[in-house]
Design brief:
The chain is α+β, with helices and mostly antiparallel strands. It folds into 3 domains: 275 residues, BirA Bifunctional Protein, domain 2; 133 residues, YbaK/aminoacyl-tRNA synthetase-associated domain (YbaK protein, Alpha-Beta Complex), CATH 3.90.960; 97 residues, 3-Layer(aba) Sandwich (Rossmann fold), CATH 3.40.50.800. It has 16 helices and 29 strands.
């Protein structure tokens, strides 16, 4: 393609709201343009990258016998009301009515749609297992879209769904899809980690995230420095071996703490480590009921772990006024002794092993010392679990390494949904014994448009984008210095024809621009290999640049045809 005909509006000055590298580079290089907050136009260069990513995905989906199809982007709200997600999804759901006053939504994901469709079409286990997918625009009304394509209100996603007659079928589909994703991201050329993820509003029993380490990532990846253990911070676990208190119980005693509102202040007053104190955090569930979570003073409460333990949806920190009305004290004086019966008490494993410990007395400015669980609270085993946020440097859950933290971009997520949707939507089949059973489902997503930002974050440099060869908008960028020179013009045409005959995508910079402008734009848009046709064209010599490592060298044109595939493979490495 001739660059003079390519719609590629590059920028010299960046908008002030472009905060992260990928957003800046994709704007500056003319790949994307904002149309509204969190909504972008994908310009020709970006569209070519998206097409190549989607091509790789389609090939690997075909390899696992997945069927590509499409369902509507506009969905009847009734389906989501039946599944329980219409309200649970919250304000991120785009809701509207048609002229007949019927409720609809813009699809953020399509579990309900595919469940309803397959439930109406498949009636026998003999038609299962089945794997279907689509590549489609999704919609989520993010409260604060930011970081370019990393957090948007409209995005491109590959969503796949597996349907099986039993758990064994789901497990196999999950393994196959995980293996397919490994191949997809290896071919694209991204660095990533597979981590334990939170199923969140999706529901289900198990999930894994594919996360691309990058400074702009909004997720924290927690990983062991000695093993392959990795998890999202919300799900990460540390190693803890229970050591129940076996000392002699001291009498319960209330004492004044008028100036101690924090754990640090209390620890300083008592001259004890924070780990020996109990901290109580109160949260509110979807029904407005209070949940009190107790940890040792040196840890923070992990609300996601609490949600999963209780198998509930949204959970958020309670308002201090509501807490004081229910418990009789504000923050800083809360504790597990004497809680009302309608408050759910959960205790972290570490805190459950404390004895003769200090905690708030549920009276402002007052604490108890010498609290013991069985005597003063009657704590039961089913109230104890891992409710703490993992800390960097602690021992990993496998006991074989220290936990390290890094930022990451979630690029894919796979879920074992089980019968979460099939049960409520009535998607059943007759099994081999003629009994009606709920379909067992999995859900598998890749954030396709987000991949542009993930690649740009990982590969981009000070001069511009650096695309892995498999997804670059063009394979080779030919830059003639002066097309009025007959030798340069002839060599440019010869090179273009030769490279295209090998099946390569070629961009020729035929613009009437200075060499410096052409080189700067070439580095900015990030095509893997640049061939400069200059003064030595008459001698059959060109300059080759490998974009990834800035390697420049001269090469005879006669060698290009045999060497270009090697240069492109080197780019991928």
């Amino acid at each position: 393609m001739k660059q003079s005909q390519l719609f590629m509006p590059t920028l010299r000055e960046l908008p002030s709201d472009a905060e992260v590298k990928s957003h800046q580079l994709l704007l500056k290089a003319g790949y994307i343009r904002p149309m509204a907050a969190g909504m972008f136009a994908y310009l020709p260069l970006a569209q070519r990258v998206l097409n190549k990513i989607e091509g790789i995905i389609r090939e690997e989906m075909l390899a696992v016998n997945a069927n590509e199809m499409s369902v509507p982007e506009i969905l009847p709200a009734e389906l989501w009301k039946r599944s329980g997600r219409y309200e649970a999804y919250g304000p991120e759901l785009y809701k509207f009515q048609n002229r007949q006053k019927r409720d609809f939504i813009l699809g953020p994901t399509h579990e309900e749609t595919f469940t309803e469709l397959m439930g109406s079409e498949i009636k026998s286990y003999k038609k299962l297992p089945l794997l279907v997918y689509q590549i489609q625009t999704k919609f989520r009304d993010e409260n604060r879209p930011r970081f370019g394509l990393l957090r948007t209100r409209e995005f491109i996603m590959k969503d796949a769904y597996s349907f099986s007659a039993d758990q064994e079928g789901l497990d196999k589909a999950f393994r196959n899809m995980e293996a397919a994703y490994v191949k997809i991201f290896a071919r694209i050329g991204l660095d990533y980690r597979i981590i334990v993820g939170d199923a969140g509003a999706m529901g289900g029993s198990d999930s894994k995230e594919f996360s691309a380490p990058a400074a702009a990532g909004e997720d924290t990846i927690v990983y062991s420095d000695a093993t392959d253990y990795a998890a999202n911070l919300e799900m990460a676990k540390d190693f803890y071996e229970s050591k129940p208190f076996e000392g002699e119980e001291e009498p319960l005693e209330k004492f004044a703490t008028p100036n101690e509102k924090t754990i640090d202040e209390l620890a300083e007053k008592l001259d004890v480590p924070a780990s020996s104190l109990a901290k109580t955090v109160v949260a509110t569930n979807e029904a407005g009921q209070l949940v009190a979570i107790v940890t040792t003073g040196d840890f923070e409460v992990n609300l996601v772990k609490v949600q999963n333990f209780l198998n509930i949806g949204d959970l958020e920190l309670a308002d201090e006024g509501a807490v004081k009305a229910a418990l009789g004290a504000g923050f800083g004086s809360l504790g597990p002794v004497g809680l009302p019966d309608d408050v759910t008490l959960l205790v972290d494993q570490r805190a459950a092993d404390l004895g003769n410990f200090v905690a708030g007395a549920n009276e402002d400015g007052q604490h108890y010392r010498n609290i013991n669980w069985k005597r003063d609270v009657d704590l039961q085993d089913d109230q104890v679990g891992d409710f703490r946020l993992a800390r960097e440097g602690d021992l990993a859950v496998d006991g074989k390494g220290k936990l390290n933290f890094t930022r990451g971009i979630e690029i894919a997520h796979i879920f074992k949904l089980g019968t979460r949707y099939s049960k409520v939507l009535g998607a059943t089949v007759l099994d081999q014994n003629g009994r009606s059973v709920d379909m067992v489902m999995g859900s598998y997503g890749i954030g396709i448009s987000r991949l542009l930002s993930a690649i740009a974050e990982q590969k981009g440099d000070d001069e511009g984008l650096v695309w892995p060869a498999a997804v670059a908008p063009f394979d080779v960028h030919i830059v003639p210095i002066n097309l009025k020179d007959a030798d340069q013009a002839k060599m440019t045409d010869t090179l273009e024809a030769s490279l295209k005959s090998q099946g390569l995508d070629v961009l020729v910079d035929d613009r009437k621009e200075r060499a410096g402008v052409k080189f700067a734009d070439a580095d900015l848009i990030g095509i893997p290999v640049r061939i400069t046709v200059g003064k030595k064209a008459a001698e059959g010599v060109v300059e080759v640049k490998v974009r990834a490592n800035h390697t420049n060298f001269e090469m005879r044109v006669s060698e290009i045809e045999d060497s270009i595939s090697v240069l492109l493979r080197g780019e991928e490495n």
